[in-house]
Amino acid sequence: MEVQSKLKLYLLTCLPILLLLSSFAQAKSVKYCDKKGNYAVKVDGVKISPDPVARGKPATFSISASAGEAINHGKVTIDVAYFGVHVHTEIHDLCEETACPVSAGNFVLSHSQTLPAITPPGSYTLTMKIEGENNQQLTCISFGFKVALFSSVSSI
């Protein structure tokens, strides 16, 4: 009985640590398009939910970033490549993806989309550019994500 008590105590001690680590595992690392670029918008990370993305189900990409100065308006260009081959481009108004004006400091840009059920499973790369006034490039990042063959998301 004493061994079971110790095991329960151990698991209760480790569970919060494992939950904390799993939340960090959800964040995707990003690469800047120009490693030497001095972008006005710095990206801290990307969270994708669900991860991997499920075909035919909504997916949300949340980009945590910070701006050196306020942004009144702009556009977001998203390019997607499948195993290195360009497959999709879309352009959005920045103010549709986050609240405008964007104040100097931290903000989150969030984009939700449902991929068609026929989307091939595998590895994708998303490149996102944010442009401000006069098409001035504020940031450019890329990150990888996966599309699953089968949905692990419950339909209940």
Concise structural overview:
With 156 residues, the chain is of the alpha+beta class. The chain has helices spanning 2-26, 94-97, and strands spanning 27-28, 31-32, 41-49, 53-54, 58-67, 75-82, 85-93, 105-114, 122-131, 137-148. The strands form two sheets. Strands 2, 4, 6, 7, 9 and 10 form a six-stranded mixed sheet that branches. The chain has a four-stranded antiparallel sheet with strand order 1-3-5-8.
Could you explain how this protein is built, in words?
With 156 residues, the chain is of the alpha+beta class. The protein has a single domain (29-148), classed as Immunoglobulin-like. The chain has helices at 2-26, 94-97; strands at 27-28, 31-32, 41-49, 53-54, 58-67, 75-82, 85-93, 105-114, 122-131, 137-148. The strands form two sheets. Strands 2, 4, 6, 7, 9 and 10 form a six-stranded mixed sheet that branches. A hairpin with a 2-residue loop joins strand 6 and strand 7. Mean pLDDT is 82; it is low at 3-26.
